[in-house]
Amino acid sequence: MTVSNAKVSSKQGNLPTVMLDDQLLLRQQTIIEAANQMIATIAVDQQLIYLNTFGRQLLGVSQDHDLLTEPLYVHEFHQAATYQYLNTEIFPKLVANAERWDGELEIKNLQGELIPAHMTIVPHLDAQGEVIWITGIAKDLRLRKQYEAQQRLALRVFDNTIEGIMVTDAQARILQVNQAFVEITGFTEEEVLGRTPKMLRSEHHDEYFYDAMWDQVEADGRWQGEIWNRRKDGSVFLQWLSINCLRDPHGKTQYYVSVFHDLTEMRAKEAEISHLSNHDPLTGLGNRHLLNERIHHAIRQARHQSSRLALMAIDLGEIQLINETLGHVACDRLIQSQGKKLATMMDDSVTVVRFGADEFTVLIEDVVDPYSVSQLAQKIRQSLQEAVELDGHRVRLSPSLGIAFYPEDATDDGGLLRNAQVALNQAKQSGRDTFRFYDQNMGQEARERLMLEQSLRDAITQGALELHYQPKVSLNTGAIYGAEALLRWNHPTLGSISPAVFIPIAEVSGLIVEIGYWVFREVCRQLSDWRQDGLKLPRIAVNMSVQQLERTDLLQQLLSSLQTYHLPVDALELEITETGLMKSEGLALSSVQSLSSEGFRLALDDFGTGYSSLSYLRRLPLSTLKIDRSFISDMQSDRVALSIVRTIIQLSRDLGLDVVAEGVELSEQVDQLREMGCDLVQGYFFYRPMSAERFQTLLLPQEDSSGQ
Ligand code: C2E
Ligand code: MG
Ligand code: MG
Fold it and tell me: Closest ligand 1 atom, CA of 664?
């Protein structure tokens, strides 16, 4: 059917009354056919009498379907419920009030597809106001509905995702945040809207970091990376952040969308996993895996720095027996406690791992001297050997240790591990409770030194140490001006051992401190004896190790010895080597200051062998410089040595210090020194170091009875 010339008027007069000519009619029909909405004309009996092109597409009615010969009715285009609604609610009102109806209604096309539509239904009336037909206009809402559903979905995703999301405008003002953002940062939506993300900044990054980040967002449209931000409660957390820039079609930035998740927990989990895979659950120490990693790394570093490593394999001993007699639980406890002992014995630079059931391995980096490793092995052996209380039983283990060195014994990871094991097996075979070096020669040397250290310890307690005295002479008067106390060790089997040999051992092992106190006390005791014998007391110089100077109780100890023997503080002089002091700086220097302010005389020993820096000399409160023996012995053949001696003598005079020439052996040296104005000398030319008894014979009787 086509729209015929008709005169239509509305009951309310709001519908236009038009007269149509053919031209106009054609134009209107073209418009109606071109419309992208369904336009249908429906007769009073609900038959469709006209349907435009769009309507036919929508309802699935083919373009050549003749509506007059093959009639279609409204009920064919709705589901029953919708049709009923139309019939009972919409049409009757339409007819009664002659009013149009607008609303959403579901259409069903001929293929049975349901289509959401926005419908406008308009009644057309005749002159008497009767409805003569109805126009139905329908807009397909499928796309809009789809879009709305998508939007709802996006909103749900936005709110339900575990990632924090923040949307800002081009000026970085926060427009929207999701629930996860609120949960992660602790800020509510109201607290952040309108503000900028700067409010989340921590001080972990500088301005350059943020500048670079935003530069990249502008250049590439996005940035991703790890960033530290701050929560509302002030705590800082690590997050993985991705910023995307949303631009309008002209390329102008409209929004920035930031999506992030909290990495803190993940990192903690990763650390936990790595800890588990690298550690032994029983002892909490590292495991084999960790050891392999550390050895690998340590060898690389040692190669680079040309340094030495030591790997020590430790077998606890009778673990199997304890397992069988006291059970697994007790045995585990024992292994645990031994592991703890080992760990507390080492500093941070040493790696201790549980290598097997009853085996531990220790990796020591930066080993200067194999001897120090043997000392450590000895200490470990002794400590693991100590009896342990276990379920009411006293258990004693006989640990064995095997030691291999990089690079001497092996230059690769596997070789080092293997050779430490070989050494361990040798130790076990040789009757347990001992340690072995992989290389016998190295072991031998270290063993000898260790033995010396051991017997030096005994020497202190068993009185095998003795002091000799070497007089210092005044060239002017020929009189004995004083003496230097020099340590002697009479070893029960090795005989007399030179301090040049045992003092370095005492230094490495720390025994020097104890020995030093003994020397000082012994000199005090000797002086007091001589005083009681009525002898004039010579001033005795005592050598001090820098390790003694680093002890905070030094001053107290020295004063207490002086007090015990009623000696004045200047009865002795303390000799400190220049090189020793140079190595120490801080603590030793302040110790020197306090000794001096307490009245002690201080001599700088072996002067000329260190930096002999003048500014250093100025800072030291000295009374004496001792010119090193090497300059005196070279003086005749070496002009430089001679001029150094001359300079030191001159310098001492200018600084108001005493100067002593050490190691004077020849009369020519005496002449030269005298000529250069050096008064005090010490050396074999006059006296060798001698026993206290012999030295005593050189002392003069006291001039008065008041002592010094
Ligand atoms: P030093 O303090 O420089 O002692 C002087 C050393 O030179 C002594 O060696 C002495 O015997 C030796 N000497 C003296 N006159 C001559 C000489 O004319 N020719 C030669 N060739 N040597 C001479 P000694 O007694 O073997 O002591 C060596 C070093 O051991 C001392 O050097 C000192 O640094 C250290 N020392 C000795 N006793 C002690 C001590 O009680 N405590 C500390 N910390 N170190 C000590
Ligand atoms: Mg000395
Ligand atoms: Mg000296």
Answer: 18
In this predicted structure, the answer to whether residue 9 has a pLDDT above a threshold of 90 is: no
- Domains of the chain, each with CATH number or no CATH: 22-140 (3.30.450.20), 145-268 (3.30.450.20), 279-438 (3.30.70.270), 465-699 (3.20.20.450)
Please state the atom number of ligand 1 nearest to the C-alpha of residue 499.
30
355 closest CA partner among 335, 378, 376: 335
Cα gap 632→612, rounded to integer Å? 16
Biggest CA pair distance of the chain = 161
What number of CA atoms fall less than 13 Å from residue 406's CA on the CB side?
29
Measured by CA distance, the residue closest to atom 27 of ligand 1 is 499
- Look at residue 261 and tell me whether its pLDDT is greater than 80: yes
Q: How confident is the model at residue 11, as a pLDDT?
A: 40
Cα angle 664, 670, 672; round to 5: 115
CB within 8 A of 49, min separation 6: which ones?
1, 41, 42, 43, 67, 68, 133
Q: Rounded to whole angstroms, how far apart are CA atoms 445 and 422?
A: 19
Give tens-digit pLDDT for 203-217.
Answer: 889 899 999 999 999
Task: Report the pLDDT value the prediction gives residue 222, as an integer from 0 to 100.
Answer: 94
Contacting residues for 187 by C-beta, under 8 A, at least 6 apart: 177, 181, 199, 231, 232
Residues within 5 Å of ion ligand 3, judged at the Cβ atom: 605-606, 662
3-state secondary structure 73-136: EHHHHCCHHHHHHHHHHHHHHHHHHCCCEEEEEEEECCCCCEEEEEEEEEEEECCCCCEEEEEE
pLDDT digits (tens, 9 = 90+) for 20-66: 678 888 898 899 999 999 999 999 899 999 999 999 999 999 999 99
Lining ligand 1 with CB less than 6 A are 470, 486-487, 498-500, 503, 516, 519, 543-545, 575, 605-606, 629, 662-665, 682-684, 689
Please tell me the pTM assigned to this model: 0.52
Residue 405 belongs to what H/E stretch? strand 400-406
Confidence band of 18 (pLDDT split at 50, 70, 90): low
CA distance 682 to 660: 7
Around Cβ 484, how many Cβ atoms within 10 Å? 23
Task: For 71-111, write each residue's pLDDT tens digit.
Answer: 999 999 999 999 999 999 898 888 788 888 999 999 999 99
User: Is the pLDDT reported for residue 239 higher than 80?
Assistant: yes
How many CA atoms within 13 Å lie on the side-chain side of 194? 2
Separation of CA 38 and ligand 1 centre (Å): 119
Could you tell me how far CA 671 lies from the centroid of its own chain?
65
- What is d(CA 592, CA 554) in angstroms, rounded to the nearest whole number? 10
Confidence (pLDDT) at 10:
39
- CA distance to 112, 311, 399, 404, 575, per residue, from 435 (Å): 93, 12, 9, 11, 39
Give me ligand 1 centre to Cα 486, in Å: 6
